[in-house]
Amino acid sequence: MADTRARDLGVPGYPYVAIPHPLSSLTSAELRARAEQVLPEVLRVLGVGEARDVGRGWERPARPEEEAFLPRGDAVPSLIEFCYEQGWTDGLPVVPPTEELVQRFLAQVQRDPDEVVLSQEHLGRSCTVRLAAANAVMAGCRPEHFPVVLAALEALQALVENRAVLMPQHGQAVLLIVNGPIRNRLAFNCKDNVLGPGDRANATVGRAIRLVIQNALGIRPHVYDLSTQGTPAKYSFCIAENEEESPWEPLHVERGFAREESTVTVALAQSTLHVEQRDSKRPEHILLSIADSMSYAGAYFPWRFGHGSIVVMGPEHAQLIAEAGWSKHRVREFLWEHFGRRAGELRRLAKAGGLDPDLPDEAFVRFAPGPEAITLVIAGARNAGVSTVCPTFAWQTATRGVPEARVHE
After folding, report:
1. How far is the C-alpha of 273 from the C-alpha of 295, rounded, in Å?
2. For 257-283, what is each residue's pLDDT tens digit?
3. What dihedral angle (degrees, nearest 10) is formed by the CA atoms of 292, 294, 298, 299?
4. What proportions of the chain, in percent to the nearest 5, are helix, strand and coil?
5. Is the pLDDT assigned to residue 10 strictly greater than 70?
6. How far apart are CA 87 and CA 242, in angstroms?
7. pLDDT above 60: residue 222
8. Which residues pair with 173 in a beta bridge?
9. pLDDT digit string (tens) for 323-339?
């Protein structure tokens, strides 16, 4: 039966060991005796010991590369535990930042390793190129990802300079948006499951930024990270724009870069909220659903600088809207006009602090200072009417160019 099953699964000759039954009625001593009885056969099939030819037409392939490069003993687990002991992790295991690995990352950029790329003056802490490389190693990046990490840190510096926006109680995370040819060269995901797990470039580059914030700036949970409630996005929050299926110019072109340039845009976002709208093809219906999701009361509180939102619009929504003749500018204007709540609703929810008491209940209170507070990026798969909105407390964003990196084949 085992031979037949192996053929059915496409692995004829798959080695196996037959263990006499029954087993469930045996005592512990009898089970041990049975295990000791079959152990030599198990070792023989695994190729351990003298015999590597396991018979039945199958031979375990010799893999000298494993023997040559795999660490011996407990070296790797010990290094990982060492990183935990130093407080260098985000709760998940990290890749130990050996000198050899850090040097491979530094070789990707022509920068002084001691150059500061991110600092927080009020904390007296900063991150150098070398420290950024060490954290990128720990995050699991490949060396060719490092230029993206550096560009993201420089954009983040522009966003947070002289302000404590990385340590508020709002629990916001750093969102990275990658544009340009480097998306495809380094395999950043911009399509299905774009805000989810599964793609190394997205996962590790986003994680590297969080580790830098924690390890270089010292903004770590229970110390300077003052979030009342965090977000899973703090582990990693990195997407790429689906430029190929967007009907409009991509984000980096909108911001003055050439289409063939690669960039990374940095924003701060509090959470993600799924927006389902498959019931209408009319732009107004789609955009009102998105604007309504942007305007939930929990995301609003009186704030003199106003609020913002990042809209990750699915390609299907974007194409339906564009086919009706709407430009990206018009979309952003429409969203801004409907991003808010009526004064009476804010009063009912005790969210009316700062409002003019003479303002009638019917008056519409816009949450954002202007359309520029709404960042619109197209990402996801073109297979359903789904978009996502990300409320943001500090709505400003920053974009930086990414120098081309060498790709290790």
Report:
1. 11
2. 999 999 999 999 999 999 999 999 999
3. -160
4. 40, 15, 45
5. no
6. 36
7. yes
8. 269
9. 999 999 999 999 999 99
**What does each C-alpha distance from 223 to 178, 220, 344 come to in angstroms?**
30, 6, 40
Nearest partner of 267 among 237, 294, 227, 302, judged by Cα: 237
Phi, psi of 266, rounded to the nearest 5 degrees: -115, 135
More confident: 81 or 38: 81
- Could you give the CA distance from residue 217 to residue 156 in angstroms, rounded to a whole number? 13
CA-closest candidate to residue 212, choices 90, 32, 298:
90
Q: How confident is the model at residue 405 (pLDDT cuts 50, 70, 90)?
A: low
pLDDT at 191: 95
Distance between CA atoms of residues 252 and 258, nearest Å? 8
Residue that is written with structure tokens 């150059």 in the block:
115
Question: What DSSP state is assigned to residue 305?
Answer: T
Q: Give 47's contacts (C-beta < 8 A, 6+ positions apart).
A: 54, 60
Residue 377: Cβ-neighbour burial (10 angstroms; 0-12, 13-18, 19+): buried
DSSP secondary structure of 56-110 = TT-BPPP-HHHHHHSPPTTHHHHHHHHHHHTT-SSSS------HHHHHHHHTTS-
One DSSP character per residue, 236-270 reads --EEE--GGG-SS--HHHHTT--TTS-EEEEEEES
Give how far the C-alpha of residue 211 lies from the chain's centroid of Cα atoms, to the nearest Å: 13
Which residue stretches of 255-373 are H helix?
Answer: 283-294, 315-323, 328-337, 343-348
Q: How far apart are CA 313 and CA 241, in angstroms?
A: 10
288 close to 338: Cβ distance less than 8 angstroms:
yes
Whole-number pLDDT of residue 165: 75
Task: Quickly count helices (H) and strands (E) in the chain.
Answer: 14, 12
Q: Which two structure tokens, joined as six digits, stand for 1?
A: 């039966």
Question: At 66, is the pLDDT very low, low, confident or very high (cuts 50, 70, 90)?
Answer: very low
pLDDT band at 74 (very low <50, low <70, confident <90, very high): confident
